[in-house]
Amino acid sequence: MIHDEKTNDNKEIVQSLEMTAPEAITAKRTFKDRTAFLRDPKFYKVLVLGQLLSLCITGTNVTTTKLGMSYNFAAPTTQTFLVYASLAIVYNSYAIYKRGIRGWLLQFWRRGIYYFILGAIDVEGNYFVVKAYQYTSLLSAMLLNCWSTPVCMILSFFIMKIRYRWLQYVGVVIALGGMGMLIASDVMEGKDYAALDAVKGDLFCLLGATLYGFSNVGEELMARKHPLYEVIGMFTFFATFINFVQLMILERNEFSAFAGNPEAIGMVIVYTVCMFILYSLAPVMFRLGSAVLYNLSLLTCNFYGLIFGIGLFGYHITIMYPFAYVVIILGIAIYHIFPTPEPAIGSFDKETAEKERIELMQGHQKKNAESLEQQNEVVVVIHNEDTQEITPTATSK
């Protein structure tokens, strides 16, 4: 009887602890706990990497602007062809070194269709965003390009099952508000220009930003499941051929004019280097952070663009620019106050890498072994059936 009473008391204590656990956890989360991400090296890795990628985007924007203003060159497909080709050569060569020809070909057989779609989306995203600047105003293009961030959040919610907290939505809104401050500063400085065809340009920009969102989330999805050299090499392989076909159809004249201008070639080489670094490090950012953090980090590229523009294009700095930069960084920090949400599919680690290697390199051998075992089982069954038929005959004799 005493034992039963003790057992009941213990059960009541456990139940009370279970009921008050969430309240206790909430009460214990102090300001120090909220700012724990500031002591996490991963936060600074993501922050620095994001700003490096933003500098790369700035380099591509500056070279594209210089090509348009100084050389009257506007051919987005021609610009990106060398980028895709160099990435495909470097990363597919490394994939062949790591996996051999057979393993490299198996990548195409098993996942080629996904990389083909990803490459096509990326090519057309680049094309429509650059094209939009020829038709719509600078203000509209900058505003509409921010649409890629909500697209990434929506796709991550449905495709990768990421569940955001309310404060992370607040961080995104604050970062986008910082971008709005940069745009307002540009308008006050008179950097906007008239739109040739606002509706057409705005639609191009919205379509390009949407395609960017799909491309970023698709690349993050593949980067969390497969090695980076496979992801970058495979989708740029298909993107190179898609880009080349589009170039021959739409930009043959621009390509011939570009080939005869060595100064323009130099600017395109700088553009290619910036894009090569961007495409190489973006999947790393997707693993450490997410496609959403990638897009938030790129919002600061206008601030860096101003620094380059002071010397190259005679831009003037305004007081709003430093404040806007701080606001964007603050939005990224607020996004980290709660632990950043992890996708339900997990991330690429040593266990995933080993599973990937076994499935890719030994899958064919496993299938052969299974087929041999099945053949042996069939032979044994036939042999046993023959033995059962012969034995009774011998007995009757």
TrEMBL record:
Predominant localisation class: membrane
Membrane topology recorded in Swiss-Prot or TrEMBL: Multi-pass membrane protein
GO cellular component, one term: membrane
Keyword Membrane: yes
Localization terms from the record: Membrane
Transmembrane residue ranges: 43-63, 69-91, 112-129, 135-159, 166-187, 193-215, 227-249, 264-286, 293-313, 319-338
Keywords: Membrane, Transmembrane, Transmembrane helix, Transport
Gene Ontology terms, MF aspect: transmembrane transporter activity
Matches recorded under InterPro entries: EmrE-like, SLC35_F1/F2/F6, SLC35F_Transporter
Similarity remark: Belongs to the SLC35F solute transporter family.
PANTHER family: DUF914-RELATED, SOLUTE CARRIER FAMILY 35 MEMBER F2
Protein name: EamA domain-containing protein
Organism taxonomic ancestry: Eukaryota, Fungi, Fungi incertae sedis, Mucoromycota, Mucoromycotina
